[in-house]
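The following record pairs a protein chain with its ligand, P53.
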Amino acid sequence: MSTFPKGFLWGGAVAAHQFEGGWQDGGKGISIADVMTAGDNNKPRQITNGIKAGENYPNHEAIDFYHHYKEDVKLFAEMGLKCFRTSIAWTRIFPNGDEDQPNEMGLQFYDNLFDELLKYGIEPVITLSHFEMPYHLVTEYGGWRNRKLIDFFVKFATVVFKRYRNKVKYWMTFNEINNQSGMMNDWSLFTNSGILKQSGEDIRRSMYQASHYEMVASALVVQIGHKINPDFQIGAMLAMGPAYPASPDPHDMMKSERAMQANYWYADVQCKGKYPAWLLKYFERQQYNLDITLADQDILRAGTVDYIGFSYYASHVVQASKNETVDFMAQDADTSIPNPTLPTSDWGWIIDPIGLRYALNWLTDRYDLPLFIVENGLGAFDTVEAGQIHDPYRITYLRDHIKQMALAVKIDGVRLMGYTPWGIIDLVSAGTGQMDKRYGLIYVDKNDAGEGSLHRMKKDSFKWFQQVIASNGDNL
Ligand code: P53
């Protein structure tokens, strides 16, 4: 008997803005991803003030899935995928975000896509908001600083819940909602919340306020979704990267605990329906006076999620600085140090399969909910040799993580719903805007400069994953 339950959701994950392209097709509006330029390992992506001539905006065309979806879904079916995680581009449905009526052509596109998936028995798994909100909501409303965004998001979610109520069962509200917690860079506040720092702004306060509105919006749509279809499974979505203490020094241990609290309080709110005590104390000390009403608190309590979806790429090591204060916001990048016991990817991400088992245990202990690994994978350079792509490094990465996942299920009793490796097909990197940071099991001929035929090719990892799925994870 195999380790994984019957019906385990083996799949693949992407996000609309990173692979669809067709940025102006079918009445689509401009999203925040459409104003981000290409960067690389050393050069951050720029967020431009609108679309500027002569800039390279990699998400505009991406891999043009919009016009290749039939061919690509056929490949997913050949791989044996049981599910496919993508997002619905908000700007296809509400191009500016504040319209009264949805855009029928956008709705039709996702009908076509879901029908195509269901034709092969592939279950769609849908993220409502994955770093691609309407840009208009940034310029006109200040992004998620503004309470009005709750209404716009709820309207969008309600429209798609109703439209796809018989086609989609698995949903997630906000992708990696906790990315912004560390405010490591401008990127995470912009992609999560459509916030660009204004001069004189207390950006931490804005981050907490925006996060609060997002969690209220999330809790509202959980309730609305369950009314529309009681079978809906609506999850949170976290970026999970456990923090390890740099040494047995209790200061380091406390620091790593703080880092975890500061990163995962979103899950406290979304799973338990209320803010953790330490954070309320922090708000008080900071005299933030956030707009958190009693009605909001009722909504949060009534709108807890059905499961936790999460991404897992890497773990982190944190070190207490000298004269550590009692400030719980311990997420600044300079506290993160290398892990001498583990290798890293070409982009410097620590490779730590056991950390995945740790994450599965930690989340289960803390929230006792079903878990869904909705992103995991290796961003790497691939080379095409005589029409083939040999990617043993990617196979090793995925295999080692699946082994740990199996232990978590078999030995630890973790309730795991599925596993969807990130970037099942090569796509635009969210962090760097690159094409050459490849995650796919399917290769797409396109490079960082935007050149290439867009031709698709199976990598060695394609065949490997096909047999993993066919054996329900036994044949690794
Ligand atoms: P890229 C940072 C840390 C953890 C997850 O990332 C992250 C990021 C963003 O860099 O994002 C998730 O493309 C995200 C995806 C993204 C993927 O990880 O920067 O949900 O949209 O593509 C991989 O290599």
